[in-house]
């Protein structure tokens, strides 16, 4: 829940920086990125390339971390444990 909330915060932060002319604005053409304003504020999804890019990078980091912790790291640990168990028998 907190990870999704951080994605919304990042999207709204980019939108605020764009409103202050700190970051440029590149609009996205397409209806998929145009949400009603109350949903856009809640999710942080605004129709700009910069905002979507920041949110996509953050989500990719979270997914990569989850894959490492729940999938790759246990497999590596299991492979390392196999030779020692076979040697003990």
| Count of separate DSSP helical elements | 3
- Can you tell me the overall shape? elongated
Computed over alpha carbons, the radius of gyration is: 20 Å
* Stretches with pLDDT under 50, minimum 5 residues: none
* Helical amount: over 70%
Can you write the helix and strand succession as a string?
A: HHH
Q: Determine the structural class based on helices, strands and strand pairing.
A: mainly alpha
**First and last CA, distance:** 45 Å
Assess the beta-strand content as a share of residues.
under 5%
Strand count, sense and barrel status of the largest sheet are: none
By DSSP, the count of extended strands is 0
| pLDDT averaged over residues | 90
Structural overview:
With 89 residues, the protein is mostly helical. It has a domain at 2-63. The protein is 73% helix and 0% strand. The chain contains three helices and no strands. It has helices spanning 2-19, 37-43, 49-88. Helix 1 (2-19) packs antiparallel against helix 3 (49-88). The termini are far apart.
Tags for this model:
mainly alpha; 89 residues; single chain; 3 helices; 0% strand; 73% helix
Q: What are the SSEs and their pairings?
A:
Layout: H1 2-19, H2 37-43, H3 49-88
